[in-house]
Amino acid sequence: MYAIVEIAGQQFKVEKSKKVYVHRLKNEEGENVKFDNVLLVDNDSNVSVGTPFVSGAKVSAKVLKHLKDDKVIVFKKKRRKGYAVKNGHRQYLTQILIEDISL
After folding, report:
1. In the Cβ-directed half-sphere of 40, how many Cα atoms lie within 13 Å?
2. What one-character-per-residue DSSP string does 78-96 give?
3. pLDDT, tens digit (0-9, with 9 covering 90-100), for 21-66
4. pTM of the model
5. Bridge partners for 3 per DSSP
6. How far is CA 49 from CA 3, 24, 43, 60, 61, in A?
């Protein structure tokens, strides 16, 4: 059984007892979170597609920890002009554990 869920503005394919990295959530570590924006649920080849959301479907998860992603280097250069800029960025993430998918 899996579901397509909208979490923090992005869509994720989630399954029970799987860990997912999402954009930083405001919840504390160890808290339980429920997501109501379920777009699709596949329950043993019984597919329910929402318009836009599946009514009554919920995904419950537990916040495991907050962390930062690997550094992404942004390098800009214009040749023969003496222009070179190097910047870095680390995205803030939250690791969640999917506990249950209910219809």
Report:
1. 12
2. ETTTTEEEEEEE--EEEEE
3. 999 999 999 999 999 999 999 988 889 898 889 999 999 999 999 9
4. 0.83
5. 14, 41
6. 10, 27, 11, 19, 21
Measure CA 40 to chain center: 15
Distance CA 93, CA 23 (A): 5
| Coil, helix or strand at residue 50 | coil
**Which residues contact residue 42 at a Cβ distance below 8 angstroms, ignoring those fewer than 6 apart?**
1, 2, 3, 48
Q: Return the structure tokens found at 80.
A: 């023969």
d(CA 71, CA 65): 18
| Amino acid letter, 97 | L
Record the tokens describing residue 94, joined without a space. Answer: 């939250």
